[in-house]
Write a structure and sequence with these properties.
Layout (H helix, E strand, L loop, with lengths): L2 H10 L3 H12 L3 H20 L3 H20 L6 H4 L5 H11 L1 H18 L1
Length: 119
Amino acid sequence: MKKIPIFIICLYCFPFVYVAMYQDFQHRSMLGYLLMVTATPLFAFCGTFFGNTKIPIAGNLLSAASSLYWISRMMGVVGWDGFFKPLTPQLLLAAVSVLNLLPQLLAIKLARGLNSNQK
């Protein structure tokens, strides 16, 4: 049972916000945001259902850190700085990360409800 939470944390390490912003910048596509909004609540549900709520917390921090790393590497690319106006890429990372917590909180509540019904 210990392997499932570690696997979920590893999945969370993917830089979801960076990939969403990169897809938006390069291809003018919102598919990256859709991936993020569907995958992270699923991970939050599984992490809470099979482990505890510390898994989504750690996963979100790791995902934000990896996104920040890749966003900072894009700072030299022409157009990247001004594409997300009026926000900077770092502020957009913070805003999207906070907004992405809302569907995850709903998934955590659902997982807790299902766990309490099983007991």
